[in-house]
Design goal:
Elements (H helix, E strand, L loop, with lengths): L1 H13 L5 E4 L3 E3 L2 E4 L2 E4 L4 E4 L2 E4 L4 E4 L4 E4 L2 E4 L4 E4 L2 E7 L4 E22 L2 E17 L3 E7 L7 E9 L5 E4 L8 E4 L7 E5 L2 E4 L2 E3 L1 E5 L2 E5 L2 E3 L4 E3 L2 E5 L2 E3 L5 E6 L3 E5 L9 E6 L4 E3 L5 E6 L11 E2 L13 E3 L8 E5 L5 E3 L3 E8 L2 E7 L7 E3 L7 E8 L3 E3 L4 E9 L5 E3 L1 E5 L2 E2 L8 E3 L4 E8 L5 E3 L1 E5 L16 E3 L3 E4 L9 H44 L5
Parallel strand pairs: 1-4, 2-5, 3-6, 4-7, 5-8, 6-9, 7-18, 8-19, 9-20, 18-21, 19-22, 20-23, 21-24, 22-25, 23-26, 24-27, 25-28, 27-29, 30-38, 40-50
Antiparallel strand pairs: 10-15, 10-17, 11-14, 12-13, 12-14, 12-15, 15-16, 29-34, 30-33, 31-32, 31-36, 34-35, 36-37, 39-41, 41-46, 42-45, 43-44, 43-48, 47-50, 48-49
């Protein structure tokens, strides 16, 4: 039992002790020391830090709505920093005349996997990789400048530089003892930083190192020195005046989310490829009426990209399909609408868009000359609005298998033209009304459509015709108040045959024709026979004249 209690006590004592401090009245920290644990500044209270304090790992400060925190002294993380290197960096190393010769050793925070170039005193090493770089040379100087060109596929950073002169004790320089163009102090691991959650008001006139700051309320930096605090995430508002921000761990010192605001006056950021601030939308969507509408984006975001056709039916997240919302930006760079670069130049996207609905009636488009810089906006298309006014038959009776004229009247009360078809039925089956071709009606136009209706069956029948609406218009009202009309009943009957029987006249005609043919034939034969007889007589007479008779 004792052993169990002892073991429990050991485990309890081995757990880190985290304190929680509630600041409910105005108070001030004006000395020095270490702050650790969780500090909550309550509504109505002001907490002032005017002294110089180290901030333990994982310390959290919460400023409630209606509360204020003022930092006029310094609040620095105890986590050892590292020196981040930009694409081109010039690291100034204070040597202090240590000795005539010796070794300058650079310890990199992480292994350099892609080759970098290092130049010292005109001695260059190209495409170097590893964790420790040694240079042998003259250390009897005040300073040595290390020129480093890094690789774009990795972030290179220095943890320490050690100077070992012959006959002298080695000197180790921490990252915060180094400086130079293209360098910035950062916290090695974001988890080792401390945090400030601003729901109320934060005012900084002193210095802060290594804090992760989220500003839902109001943040004011006036003459502040902010190191390794980037990106400060702003959901409320921030004002930066006569201040410096450096050592951001991302590509921006400040992120302004959605409709949060920023003012930047006479201040400097990390610089280089690190933007002073960027404005990013958490979401970027457009509302439409159905999944057949598609969106084309042009010159969107930080990289001025153009999109392929995007639609709700082909959304980035299949779980959102069917909500009639098109996601038009996949990542934060596409949702970045304005930013200030490291040189202090403000940029703003110049994006436009096109919304298209393609249907058998035609293509309907909506141009967006300037894409709204908001989380969501809706788009309405100019569409036709057809009404079937009337369907009038030319007579109330007709013979089966003969045509009956019918006139249809359709009005387009919409804002766009339509090339539409009409389907007709009679007695529950498709009706023959002639050639079914598309009919065109422009905005505000009334057209008459002549039809020729026939029926193969007898009876009292009515013709019913409907404007055919393609499925592409799902969710749209393109027919109003009605898309169907019906004729009055028409009596269809078989026509009685009251004409004279032609069989007898035809037979008489045939007999007469035969008789005439026979008569003509006999006459022709008689003529031919007479000719033959005349010819025989002539021949016989000639023979009598030539031959004589001997008596």
């Amino acid at each position: 039992m004792r052993r169990a209690l002892l073991l429990s006590l050991i485990i309890l004592l081995s757990q880190p002790f985290v304190s929680a401090t509630d600041i409910t009245a105005d108070s001030e920290e004006d000395s020095s020391g270490t702050l650790s644990g969780t500090y909550t500044v309550s509504n109505g209270a002001t907490w002032t830090v005017s002294g110089d304090y180290e901030i333990a790992e994982n310390t959290a400060v919460i400023i409630e709505e209606g509360a204020t925190m003022v930092v006029s002294g310094s609040m620095n993380a105890v986590a050892p920093p590292k020196l981040n290197l930009a694409g081109t960096a010039n690291v100034h190393v204070p040597v202090g005349f240590l000795g005539e010769t010796g070794v300058l050793r650079i310890d990199f925070a992480d292994e350099v996997l892609y080759g970098i170039d290092i130049e010292i005193n005109n001695e260059s090493t190209t495409n170097w990789t590893g964790t420790q770089f040694d240079w042998n040379g003259d250390l009897d100087v005040e300073n040595v400048t290390v020129n480093i060109t890094t690789h774009p596929f990795q972030i290179s950073s220095i943890s320490t530089i050690t100077l070992s002169a012959q006959g002298a004790t080695p000197v180790m320089l921490e990252a915060d003892e180094l400086s130079g163009d293209g360098t910035s102090l950062v916290i090695p691991d974001r988890n080792n930083a401390w945090s400030i959650d601003v729901q109320g008001t934060l005012i900084v006139t002193g210095s802060i190192f290594g804090a992760g700051i989220s500003c839902h309320g109001t943040c004011t930096l006036n003459g502040a020195q902010m190191t390794s605090t980037g990106p400060i995430e702003v959901m409320g508002s921030i004002s930066v005046t006569d201040s410096s921000l450096s050592g951001g761990i991302s590509d921006e010192d400040i992120i302004i989310w959605d409709d949060a605001s920023i003012t930047w006056t006479n201040s400097t950021g990390t610089g280089g490829v690190t933007d002073n601030w960027v404005n990013i939308l958490t979401t970027r969507t457009v509302g439409v009426q159905n999944g057949y509408v598609v969106f084309y984006g042009y010159n969107m975001g930080y990289d001025s990209i153009s999109t392929s056709p995007l639609g709700d039916n082909s959304t980035f997240d299949s779980g959102n399909m069917g909500d009639n919302v098109i996601e038009i930006a996949l990542d934060e760079r596409d949702r970045m609408v304005r930013w200030q670069d490291g040189n202090g130049v403000v940029h703003e996207e110049s994006a436009s868009g096109l919304v298209v609905l393609s249907t058998p009636w035609g293509d309907y488009e909506h141009q967006i000359s300037e894409l709204p810089k908001v989380n969501h906006f809706d788009v309405s298309l100019d569409l036709p609005l057809l009404s079937f006014d009337s369907l009038v038959e030319s007579d109330d009776e007709n013979n089966v298998d003969s045509r009956l004229g019918v006139m249809a009247t359709v009005t387009n009360n919409g804002d766009a033209a339509a090339n539409f078809l009409i389907d007709c039925t009679s007695n529950g089956v498709d009706a023959n009304v002639g050639v079914n071709v598309p009919y065109s009606a422009g905005p505000g136009e009334t057209i008459e459509i002549p039809m020729n209706w026939d029926s193969a069956v007898e009876g009292d029948l009515a013709l019913e015709c409907t404007i055919f609406v393609p499925y592409h218009f799902e969710g749209f009202d393109v027919v109003y108040p009605t898309g169907t009309e019906r004729t009055n009943p028409v009596t269809w009957s078989i026509e009685d045959d009251e004409s004279t029987n032609l069989a007898l006249p035809i037979a008489i005609g045939l007999v007469a024709a035969v008789l005439i043919f026979v008569l003509v034939l006999r006459r022709q034969m008689g003529i031919e026979a007479a000719k033959e007889y005349s010819h025989v007589n002539e021949v016989s007479g000639e023979e009598d004249e030539d031959s004589g008779v001997i008596e």
